[in-house]
Structure formats: C-alpha cells, structure tokens
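Pasting as-is:
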Amino acid sequence: MPNQAVIDFIDKYDKFIITAHETPDGDALGSEYAMLLALRKLGKTARILNADPAPQKFAFIAGSGEFEVLLRTQQIPEDIAEYGLFILDVNDINNIGQVATLVLPRVKEYFIVDHHDSETVQLSKNHIEQNASSTCEILYTLFREMQLELDLPIARALYMGILYDTGSFIYPKTTAFTFKIAHDLVKLGVQPNETYVSVYESNSISSLVLMSKVLSTLELHYDNHVAVQTMTQDLLRDAGAIYEESDLLINIPLRSGDIRVSVFFKENLEGVKRCSLRSKGNIDVATIAQSLGGGGHKTAAGFKCVRPFDVMKVEILEMLHKYFNNQAAKTE
C-alpha cells in the first residue's frame, strides 16, 4: 500500500501535534485541518500548532482557534513526550519556525507528508510525492486508502488546498487525477465558487493599495523576460496592509506573455526577508531556491533572504543567465 508508512504512524500514537511551514498558505492550512479532522474521526487527540497565523481568507474552513500560533512553551501539552508530530507541506524541518525548537525535540517521533521537490535524501519516516499537485491531494489518497469517510468539512479543506496549490487548476502538476479528486469533493458538497471567492476575492482595500505600490517597484531584466518586484517593511506599512495579502503579487508579472520569470522580494513588519520565484517553461527556479537554502517546485519556489535584497537580486539574475541565450541583464 503506497501510504502504509503514514498509516503505521497514525496507528502508532493516540496523540498528535500537526504543523506546516512558516507563513502557511492554502495547501498547508487545508492539509492541516483535513488531517486534524481525520485524526479526530479515528478517536485520536490532535492539535494544530503553527509558527505563524493563518491568513483570514483561509480561515473559513476551520472552527475558531483551530489554527493555533505557538508563542510560548505553556501552550505545549505536559505529556508532549507521548505525541507524534505531523509536519505537512514542507520537507525541511528548518522551515517550521519555533515549532522546530519548542516541539520537535520533545515529541516521541515526527513524520513528514509533502509534495515539494527536494534534493535531500528521503528518509523512511517521510512520505513525499513530488509529482502530486498538493499535499491535500496526497491526503485525499491516504484517507481513501484508510477507507475513512470524507465529510463536508474535510472535503472543503482538501478542495481549498488543491485549488490554491494548483493556481485554480492550471499549474504544471495538475493532472486528470487532480480533477477527479475535485469532482469527488464537489459531489460531497463543496461549492467551488464559494471557495474561490473566499481565497481570491476577499482581500481588503489596503491590499489593492499594496498591489499598486509593489507594482511601482517593477524592474524588467533580460530583454523583458524577468520581472523583479520588491516589498519593503516601510512599503507594507505605508499601504496599511498585512503581510499575508502580498502572497499572490508574485503572479501578476506572469500575466504578460513576455515574462518568463517573476522574482518577488518581500519583508514583513518584523523585518524577516523572503524571496518568491515563479517561472514558465523549462526554467527551474527550485534549483535556485535550494542553492540559497530554500525549496519548492520547478516553477514555484522560495527562500529566506540572509543578505540585502540588492545583493540577492544580482545573485539570482546571474543564476538565470543561462536561460536567456547569454544576453546581458538590463533594467528598464
């Protein structure tokens, strides 16, 4: 059975902590909540503890307080040594924030379920399907294999994660099987329009102001084939927006037929700097992200910036040089 290792891990423990990557997105939160409900259906004790809060647009799938943000050790159960830890939608334990320092060393064992591309060795306690469209797609097959009855709350969470991580069913890892899953989830009562509106059409007015300010930073390189945008802490504050409302701005330049790579440097109000990368065609941005301590997919990846944005921009443009016929980079 393809998911036997995951099933064995679930059978092994009665109590679980569930977590995902920092700044959790739709697939991370959808898979966490679906796993939470599934474990509870099985009579298990389960809680979600994340490094960062859930963006409001994704919170419609869950009950109040289910996505807990780990801020202090007092939140950790006293019997944490009896718990198993599920790490979802990320294969790097260094990308789960304070969960890595406060929870990971104290649990009995951890298990990773993920779909991101990785060059690291996949240990037996991991379940990584790099060809899956999303972690929610993997969980759907897991639950079916376990003959777990899918109710509407689980279906809604799975659908949200798949919708988000496929870019509304258009990204390269979207397959006929992905559509079959979506078909099954809609048959269970999921309303596609309701989910789409919640995820993509529920941002604030300040998010529109933020978009205009970020677009004003647009730089074009390599004969207009590479777009670079930058969102500093000051820009975010001036827009009056929240950091999570910037998550889709990386995709805007790709609407142009000329743009093949979109690079988005972003800084939150606490000064943490990150870079998101998106690409079209044969341009592998995952390799770039991995070389800089991050990861992701061939056409969608990212990493934390440990050096100034200007320095990182030069480095990334140099790594993209091979894809553009040795043209010299230029800015317009």
